[in-house]
Automatic annotation (TrEMBL):
Species of the source: Photinus pyralis (Common eastern firefly)
Any matching Pfam family: GST_C_2
InterPro entries reported in the protein's UniProt record: Glutathione-S-Trfase_C_sf, GST_Omega/HSP26
Highest rank taxon of the organism: Eukaryota
Protein name: GST C-terminal domain-containing protein
Length: 117
């Protein structure tokens, strides 16, 4: 729900885009806190069903950058260990060849998600 709440934000909504972004960040942090501390995968050294289940959503996060002012907005340089761990997992997912091989062209996602944005 937080992904779509963020993606569907408009100025008419009773919450700000900053509130939607903060709520989404909170959920990502909670998820990341459950990850194996070393990774790169959710449970450690090996890809698991958790990673496979979350990969399609991780791959879609760029849509927030495409459609929303300020984009996803996860800090990349503040030294926060949780965000560092998030990016380690995120890059393991998006850089995995099997994920790349099964991903449709970005233009298809732009068209499909336009109605939500």
């Amino acid at each position: 729900p937080a992904f779509y709440r963020f993606l569907q934000h408009t100025p008419e909504k009773p919450y700000t885009i900053e509130q939607a972004r903060a709520e989404f960040h909170k959920h990502i942090r909670t998820l990341t806190e459950q990850m194996d501390p070393d990774g790169p995968w959710f449970l450690g050294e090996h890809l698991s069903l958790v990673d496979i289940s979350l990969a399609p959503w991780a791959k879609r996060l760029w849509l927030l950058d495409h459609y929303k002012s300020g984009g996803l907005g996860i800090p990349q340089t503040d030294g926060d260990a949780i965000w560092q761990r998030w990016f380690k997992w995120y890059h393991a997912i998006v850089d995995r060849q099997s994920v790349k091989d099964t991903w449709s062209a970005d233009e298809r996602y732009i068209i499909a998600y336009k109605r939500y944005a």
